[in-house]
From TrEMBL:
The keyword Oxidoreductase applies. Residues 3-133 form the 2OGFeDO JBP1/TET oxygenase domain. Its cofactor is Fe(2+). It holds the Pfam family Tet_JBP. InterPro entries: 2OGFeDO_JBP1/TET_oxygenase_dom. Keywords: Dioxygenase, Iron, Metal-binding, Oxidoreductase. GO terms for molecular function: dioxygenase activity; metal ion binding. It comes from Lentinus tigrinus ALCF2SS1-6. This is 2OGFeDO JBP1/TET oxygenase domain-containing protein.
Amino acid sequence: WMKAMQNHSGLLDGVLAVTHPALYRAGVEVRRKLSMQASELRQYLTMWPSVFNAVQVIINRMTIHHRDVSGRPGWMDMLLSMGTYGERGVMSFRNLSVSVPYDTGSVVLVNSKVVIHSVPQVPPDRICYAFFMLDFVHSWVGQEDPGWSKITDRRRVP
């Protein structure tokens, strides 16, 4: 799975590097520190496909309105939707009063600790890869919190 996801995850990492460069750099640094501090993980870290240090696979189910608890308030999660849909998928952000299309191939970057989000039931077969970072992993290796994404952190393309 890790080898199969490397190309997809490279694209997702690129999106994070552009939208929240400090979080991307923190993720890279956490991998480096984990490799040094937990040598028994080194072989797995070389195969791990992303700067995100966790992934949850959600298959054929709705997700009720919720906030996630594993990250920090300024962090972003990346959701990748795959599979077949018999009807249009929608992702709802309750405290923003907005819904967005969430079809096959959708990538959603969400501050899931702050934004209440959900996906209603749709016909199978669908899968969501939810990539995120774990607060306790960053704390364990002593990685400083990169905080919120700031417009001044992004580079402008001429």
